[in-house]
Specification:
There is one protein chain. α3 runs parallel beside α8 and α6 packs antiparallel against α8. By secondary structure, the chain is an all-alpha fold. The radius of gyration is 27 Å and the shape is rod-shaped. It contains eight helices and no strands. It has a domain of 76 residues.
Length: 204
């Protein structure tokens, strides 16, 4: 029996599992494409912006930050709008800008995690409903049922669990990989921000 035959034998629950797999592939492809386009500038840019701002050249600092169209440029541009003397506000703006960039990177990851949790539960639901149908057949025949018929009904019911796991396992693997990419991005962004603060303090 081919894959399509196995799929149709699984019953109606196979369709939401298939939908989950399609959504997972679409989200994973979109996030991978998005991450491949992210370029985080080096610490030298952060230091240059920090020194310019410390010297009172807010326009120059904003111009330097604007040269980088990436996440770090946006974070530094937000911080460069605050006067160096207002340290507390600047740190708040800097942290908020970082969090905005991280939230953008984390977009759709909670949905991937949800799919990883839902897919095996859908598979289990299909198995339970399939077993219910199998035992209903036994009841309808007064308990006299061919063992081969019963076994066939049971393995068909188990198909949904198998397909649910087939979707859930790669989904969780992809989610773990993408989450690791976000964590590394966050760490680098924080490192660049620290370099900015050090340059700002060191140039005073």
């Amino acid at each position: 029996m081919d894959v399509l035959g196995f799929f149709t034998k699984g019953g109606f629950v196979m369709w939401p599992i298939l939908f989950c797999s399609v959504v997972m592939l679409a989200l994973a492809a979109e996030r991978l494409w998005r991450y491949s386009r992210v370029r985080l500038a080096g610490e030298d840019l952060a230091e240059q912006v920090g020194r310019s701002l410390a010297q009172g050249d807010m326009a120059g600092a904003q111009a330097l930050a604007g040269e980088d169209p990436g996440p770090l440029g946006r974070v530094l541009a937000a911080a460069a709008q605050i006067k160096p003397s207002d340290r507390e506000t600047m740190e708040t703006v800097l942290i908020d800008a970082q969090q905005n960039e991280v939230r953008e990177m984390e977009r759709y990851l909670p949905l991937l995690a949800a799919i990883g949790n839902i897919a095996p539960l859908l598979g289990l639901l299909g198995t339970v409903t399939g077993m219910i149908r199998a035992f209903m057949v036994i009841q309808e025949t007064g308990g006299k049922v061919n063992a081969a018929v019963l076994a066939g009904g049971i393995w068909e019911a188990m198909l949904t669990t198998a397909f649910g796991l087939i979707v859930a396992l790669p989904t969780m693997a992809v989610h773990s990989y993408l989450s690791g990419r976000v964590d590394r991005f966050h760490d680098l962004l924080e490192t660049r921000s620290v370099a900015f603060i050090k340059a700002l303090n060191g140039s005073r």
